[in-house]
Amino acid sequence: MIQVLVTGANGQLGHSLQARANRYPAFAFHFTDVDTLDLCDAEAVRRYVEDKQVNYILNCAAYTAVDKAESNEALCERINRDAVRHLGEAAQAVGAKVIHISTDYVFDGTNCRPYVETDPTCPISVYGRTKLAGEEALRAVCPEAVIIRTAWLYSEYGNNFVKTVLRLGAERDELRFIFDQVGSPTYAGDLAEAMLTIVAQAEEGHFVPGVYHFSNEGVCSWYDFTVKILQLAHLSKRVIPIETKDYPTPAARPHYSVLNKGKIKATYGMTIPHWETSLQSCLQHLLNS
């Protein structure tokens, strides 16, 4: 059996991987979170990877509370940088392959065209800086890793933007959302499928290390995203577009974080759904559950 370690199993992406695990009967999955494996403990990580004879590490663990990160930089660094290094070191020691999830927040959002993997990074928040530091730490100790930057992640699981909009839509007649931050939503189920596709291809001898971008196709603002969520959920509410300056937050956000997916599509032969198609699929799961 191919041994696959999934970290951050209690998060959106981890849950999405769990939901798809039975489609891959040749893989033995080990789903862990902080209660079963402390990634900040380098020795514990090394022992776990050795004992389970891990072949692949899918790292979904991260400190993702963007605003709280501004006042918790030390903890954010331990989880987003140091823990990633520990996984890379453990993988390198046993010859395991790593697929690590990073973020659009490594960019400052001043582009006017979709970001490619070679564009200069310039994070503008603690979260973005620590995630970039994690990428660099992983490449330093495990240069054969795959790093996937994603954006605007949502799913049926945990707390996320789609669930927030549904809750507010049920409580209020009027909602206000930002229209001058533009990106591409990512359904965690699609990202999970992409990660598993890479593992499956690696087992067939096709594994190309490097940095990749993955989100759903298409572009929208948070305002547009909100309107579509409410429309698909059949909630008739007034949505008012506001500017970023009208909704100040502790952490700065990129105004433009559209990612170019050409590299991952060409390298791994992926077809990526449009964000509206995947949103509809997610809402069907949420509203019928």
Any overview of this molecule?
This protein has ten helices and twelve strands. By secondary structure, the chain is an alpha/beta fold. The protein has one domain: NAD(P)-binding Rossmann-like Domain (Rossmann fold, 3-Layer(aba) Sandwich), CATH 3.40.50.720.
Helices and strands, with pairings:
Layout: E1 2-7, H1 12-20, E2 27-31, H2 42-51, E3 56-59, H3 66-69, H4 73-94, E4 97-103, H5 126-141, E5 146-150, E6 153-154, H6 161-171, E7 174-178, E8 182-183, E9 186-187, H7 188-203, E10 210-213, E11 220-221, H8 222-232, E12 238-242, H9 262-268, H10 275-288
Parallel strand pairs: 1-2, 1-3, 3-4, 4-5, 5-10, 6-9, 7-12
Antiparallel strand pairs: 8-11
Give a nutshell description of this structure.
The protein is an alpha/beta fold and 289 residues long. The protein contains 10 helices and 12 strands.
Features:
single chain; 289 residues; alpha/beta; Rossmann fold; 6-stranded parallel β-sheet; two-stranded parallel ribbon; 10 helices
> How many beta strands in the DSSP annotation?
12
Across the major sheet, the strand order is 2-1-3-4-5-10
Sheet/helix structural class: alpha/beta
Global Rg: 19 Å
The CATH topology name reads Rossmann fold
- Can you tell me the CATH architecture? 3-Layer(aba) Sandwich
Helix share, percent: 40-55%
According to CATH, what is the class? Alpha Beta
Please state the overall shape, judged from the principal axes of the Cα atoms. globular
Strand content: 15-25%
User: Please, what is the average pLDDT?
Assistant: 96
Major beta sheet summary: 6 strands, parallel
Order of helices and strands: EHEHEHHEHEEHEEEHEEHEHH
